[in-house]
Write a structure and sequence with these properties.
Number of strands: 23
Shape: globular
Radius of gyration: 24 Å
Distance between the termini: 39 Å
Strand content: over 45%
Number of helices: 3
Helix content: under 10%
Length: about 500
């Protein structure tokens, strides 16, 4: 691994050097407070209460120049649970303190108009076993929390060959490291190639492309490399711009895959046909259908943008990995959302990052529906999001389902006083072959709070939170009440 790490370090140096002369924005702050819970161990009987001290410093660094840009947000939550006299008596991971959260995006133009470099980094907490209790955030005693660290370096060539034709060649190296041994560390290498005319620049466009991906795991059943996998494909694409608002597109290709699977086929020919409709600059609709070795592969998406509202909805059936799902965060590409008030949607409580998924090193066939809506008025902001994911593990064919729905309302009562209400519900349905070790469950959370600003940089928040879990395993059911008092200062 030493050689790839050397390449990553060199890549970061190449990214930083052009950004030295950029315009920089710097910031820092912290959140400090106390949280009272009447059920820190998340039990249905013999509940134990505790008061937990929390301190979360954060830093922000953003720079943008003529040839490079960088955007970093980093926070770490320290808590006093390790010093508590409460003993929950459950096996699993120790309490996480500090619990880090990192978001980094960067890009650089190394050679004018053709050679570029991207870099990303991510750190967050996620649940180890999605079917067990605990792990909703870093402040319970159930030991069901893991910290994932991921970074990626991606040099690429993007070269215009003619007025309408271009060449794209990208290499991407990424690593994932987990604090819990049950989740294997891994390295992934990817190569993407495309040559042809651009649909945005010509009425009729054609091209050829290819993809290659290789994942190597450091440990699996005593170091067995059985679960290392390779995915590769080649395709021919075409698109026809019927009018200013309607485009027809299609591609056909072949894929060659090598991984542990109970499916009869893991490769073969594939195709896709679709249409893109853009009636105006605010609306984009994409529809398509196709066939791959795992069966039908329909797709659909809609994006709507207005002065006060945004809507995004999508449906897709595709192969992915648990490393990709654990490392997916809806705020990773919008670092600004992390700064206002500390951390997103949790008022300073670091929760799980990424999407719900199970533990596996084999590919996952993920059939997923997503919906995100946000409305911003003069004094009121409303947001809603939902997801439905059916995940089939290639190694054994187990089919698990994860459903999420959440709404939030924020209301400015005055120039300095605001209130908010957040409701969320999560359902986890395990494959019946998993037995009693993976019971179906429902988790509900409701939070209501007030926030008072004392200036541009200082605020105090007070909130109440109710958590409830119902499960087919009565030992995993619980109710919890929390009261949160926090002070925030942001430079």
């Amino acid at each position: 691994m030493a050689q790839p790490n050397l390449v990553a370090a060199l890549g970061l140096c190449l990214l930083v050097e052009p950004a030295v002369s950029a315009e920089w924005t710097r910031g820092a702050g912290f959140t400090a407070g106390a949280i009272y819970t009447d059920n820190v161990c998340l039990r249905n009987t013999d509940k134990l209460d505790d008061t937990i001290g929390v301190f979360t410093p954060n830093v922000r660094l953003k720079g943008e120049g003529a040839r490079a840009r960088m955007d970093l947000y980093a926070a770490a939550q320290f808590n006093t649970m390790e010093d508590s006299d409460v003993e929950c008596g459950v096996s699993g991971a120790d309490n996480i303190s500090p619990a880090p959260r990192i978001r980094f995006n960067g890009s650089s133009e190394l050679l004018s108009n053709w050679f570029f470099l991207d870099a990303t980094a991510f750190a967050d907490q996620n649940r180890i076993n999605p079917f067990a209790a605990g792990g909703e955030d870093a402040l319970d005693g159930r030991g069901n929390l893991n910290t994932s660290y991921q970074y990626a370096i991606s040099p690429y060539i993007a070269r215009r060959l003619t007025d309408t034709a271009s060449l794209s060649l990208r290499y991407r190296y990424s690593e994932e490291h987990n604090t819990e041994d049950v989740l294997d560390d891994n390295q992934r290498q990817q190569v993407q190639f495309d040559l042809g005319t651009s649909p945005e620049l010509s009425r009729f466009s054609v091209g050829v492309g290819g993809n290659y991906s290789d994942i190597e795991y450091e440990e699996r059943f005593g170091g067995d490399e059985l679960f290392n996998s390779q995915l590769s494909s080649a395709q021919v694409r075409a698109a026809f711009q019927w009018s200013r608002s309607i485009q027809f597109n299609a591609y056909v290709g072949e894929e060659w895959n090598d991984y542990v699977s109970v499916f009869q086929d893991s490769d073969g020919g594939y195709w896709d046909v679709g249409v893109t409709w853009t009636p105006n600059s605010r609306v984009t609709v994409e529809l398509g259908t196709g066939e791959r070795f795992f069966g039908e592969s329909p797709r659909a998406s809609i994006s709507y943008r207005h002065k006060r509202s945004t809507l995004r909805a999508s449906y897709l059936r595709d192969l992915t990995y648990d490393r990709s799902l654990r490392g997916t965060d809806p705020f990773a590409d919008n670092v600004d959302d992390l700064v206002d008030g500390g951390l997103p949607n949790d008022q300073g409580i670091i929760g799980d990052g990424g999407e719900e998924t199970t533990i596996t090193n084999s590919p996952i066939l993920d059939e997923r529906f997503l919906l995100v809506y946000r409305f911003t008025g003069r004094r009121t902001t409303f947001s809603a999001n939902a997801s439905h994911s059916e995940q089939t593990r290639a190694e054994d064919g187990f089919e698990d389902t994860f459903v999420y729905a959440g709404v939030g309302v924020e209301r400015a009562l005055s120039a300095r006083l605001s209130t908010y209400l957040r409701l969320s519900w999560t359902r986890r349905e395990a494959d019946q072959r998993r037995g009693l070790l993976a019971p179906d469950s429902d988790n509900a959370r409701a939070t209501i709070g007030l926030e008072r600003k004392f200036g541009r940089r200082t605020s105090v928040g007070l909130s109440y939170q109710y958590n409830e879990r119902s499960s087919d395993n009565i030992l995993d059911e619980y109710e919890e009440n929390r009261v949160l008092l926090q002070f925030r200062y942001q430079i």
